[in-house]
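Work Package 3 (structural annotation) set out to generate three-dimensional models for the target panel prioritized at the project kickoff. During this period the team completed the workflow that converts sequence records into discrete structure tokens, so that structures can be stored uniformly alongside our sequence database. As a representative example, we reproduce one entry of 116 residues exactly as it appears in the project archive.
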Amino acid sequence: MGVKKWLFRKLAITFTLLSLITLSISALLIYSVTKEKVSADFKESTMQILKQNEMYIKLIDESIEVTSIQMLQNKDIAENFNVKGLSTFEQLQAKNRVESYIKSIGNNGSSSLIKV
């Protein structure tokens, strides 16, 4: 009976080691494949975010450019900035006119606000 017990113990140890080695190899393969996939997905999503940010910055830049052109082409704004010699009340009115015009450009975003 001693030999059977010894053989059974060796057989159990062999199957246990074989199972552990197989599981370890599987775990390593799964880890490497998952790591590659996650890295690729991360790079792709990062590039998408960068492209979206680039488009958003271009949109803001174009909007600022259009608004600046509208403001530069409006003679009323230039006249309202020249407030020397005006009373405090007239200066406040000029400030309110400029503020109102700038708000209307910002709210509408339309080139129809250009006054020549």
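DSSP finds three helices and no strands in the chain.
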